[in-house]
Amino acid sequence: MFFFNKKNEDTEVLSQTPESETSVPSNLTSTTSLTNPSEIEPTSKPEETKKCHIPPAYPIKPVRRRKFELTEDQQDKYDKVLDHFEKFIQKDIPINETSTAKTHPITDQEKAWLTKECFLRFLRASKWDLLATIKRMEETMIWRRSFGLINIPNLIDSKDLLTSQSVSHENSSGKQVIYGYDSIESRPILILRNGYQNTKSGIGQVKHLVFMLESVIKFMPPGQDQIALLIDFGAAPKELNLSASFPSLSITKQSLHILQKSYPEVLGIGLFHDLPWIANAFMKISRPFVDPYTMSKTHFDSFQNFVPKQQLFNEYNGIINFKYDHDIYWPKMNEIAENKYNIYMNNFKKLGGTIGLSEFDLRLDETYLNGLIDLEESSI
Questions:
Q1: Beta strand 227-235 with 188-195: parallel, antiparallel or unpaired?
Q2: pTM across the whole model
Q3: In a domain, 191, yes or no
Q4: Which positions ≥6 away from 28 have C-beta within 8 Å?
Q5: Residue 178 phi, psi dihedral angles, 5° rounding
């Protein structure tokens, strides 16, 4: 309850907590230990609907540090990938994917992306193939530059950067919303509302999706490196005069390619709501482009089984009466995401600015640390 009731205010950074009271990151990997799902369900269930226009910045309950059990062979491959990129970050790499692209040193932003969890995500997605993992990560780093996710002044034009301003018009109808955390593992939730479509199918929609993915990743709490994706195929209210058109097959393929190649293992669960017959047909067309493991994470019309009512819209049987107001929601969502990313980067610098740091330590702030202390005390 601590996090749900906490206001969306700026939080203090890790440096204001004595090192002896925080966990020290390690380049080694270690077993998964998440909050027990039964602990997440609140003891009291509010019945009154609550109006809300901005996303909560924290889950209802925090997640303990994630640990990873690796076999001897997996640990060896992890160490080799880490060793490779410790050398790789000394190089200059292309600023885009063209053959004539200029090169530039790897930035702190890119080094901070090379976390312990990032290495493990790519290793698992590549089925622990060492060379495939390295190739995929190197290509993703160049793609991130080319797609406007990395700012390199004087080499990458500012108008080519992917920013909240550049995609704001795409979300003016509220077709994608970051709101709440699931009740299983406190994954931040990205809601895609197909009925609120306001633009024609094109690259702008792909850029918007990537921007929202980057934003919801910033909402991840310490101990979580996956998201929950809620896809609602229901129609928007008639007075909004919006369409429910599907993106073209080419745009769908491009989006899925980016998701699977550059964001492996990020999707923790996918929930579908109000799936009409045409959407079923669309899903069948898309299925060949989605790996079986990803498809196994999907569930239908069961939002209330995966999301606490206190962070779930009332149309999905929650108690949140949410009405999208772009002038209120959009700046606040971006403010929360930016504040969290500033904490992430400040912690990165304070912890040595090296690669292989734990995302738990990079995302940890005083508010979350206090929540973990409360959780530990309540379990004694």
A1: parallel
A2: 0.82
A3: yes
A4: none
A5: -90, 120
